[in-house]
């Protein structure tokens, strides 16, 4: 069970400091509290919801509510439904309010250095110290933008999926969505109802049934234990999960709404050049090309880790990095497991 709310943090020296108050930071704080420590959580934003309020408007989870909760608080409502983005943000607000951790919003961490302990400096110059620091800022703040030929000189609209909100600004326009993951396919299919859209990918899109044998895929991942296996470090570079589909997205692509094409070779002015050398005018390019760890405050430290525990700095841990330990590491369902693992190792 969760506690009874926030407590006041009296001074700037703490048992542990967690950087980020999204799903990973809240899970880390819960794991620390369970071991008898009183962590300070520093969050750059104005509330403890992480990146969830900033995702595109139509986003729903790919996992049912039953498999989309942090330790100590089940996701409310029908456990078989797929919660909307705003429901996840509300859930995190509730979780934070009952966690019993010291959470300070509006505290962007600028730098972490190692003296006798870790010194954590915020953008306003405040310093905090602790023997344990857990970096839990995920990757949303560091969207990956590939170096595509001609993209820097393209005069049209260029957005990363992190900036996309809704199809309204693209009505009637010629749009290319770059990427082959869940977000790329969701965004392209949504846009195709309002615009002429091509999904540009380096390889064919890989699909996986959302509900094989009458059960959501996450039921089988949980039942078989595959979701918990610590195989993250052994996954090949560039590994991505298949697009979860009830049949809707495969049918949309088969119907060319959107159409799927091999990746273009270049942009030249406002025109795209396809592999067959055809050229056509394009109004917008949306990059659904993933994220990289958002850890600029660790520039003075080394960030190599073993399943979330630093290889070089005793007391430094990570929660919320993609594949850091398992297939579910950067998800609501996996954050609690990873946090428990990281905290246990940091304290031994």
Mean pLDDT: 95
Overall geometric form: globular
Distance between the termini: 25 Å
Biggest sheet: strand arrangement = 3-2-1-7-20
Helix content: 10-25%
CATH class of the largest domain: Alpha Beta
Shape-level CATH architecture of the largest domain: 3-Layer(bba) Sandwich
Total of helices:
6
Number of domains: 2
| Weakly predicted, low-confidence segments | 4-10
Kindly report the CATH topology of the largest domain: FAD/NAD(P)-binding domain
How do the strands and helices of this protein lay out in sequence?
Elements: E1 16-19, H1 23-34, E2 39-42, H2 85-97, E3 102-104, E4 109-114, E5 118-122, E6 127-130, E7 133-135, E8 157-160, E9 174-178, H3 182-191, E10 196-201, E11 207-209, H4 217-224, E12 243-245, H5 248-254, E13 259-262, E14 266-268, E15 271-273, E16 279-281, E17 284-287, E18 305-306, E19 309-310, E20 316-318, H6 332-346
Parallel strand pairs: 1-2, 1-7, 2-3, 7-20, 8-17, 9-10, 9-17, 10-13, 11-12
Antiparallel strand pairs: 4-5, 5-6, 14-15, 15-16, 18-19
Helix pairs in contact: 1-6
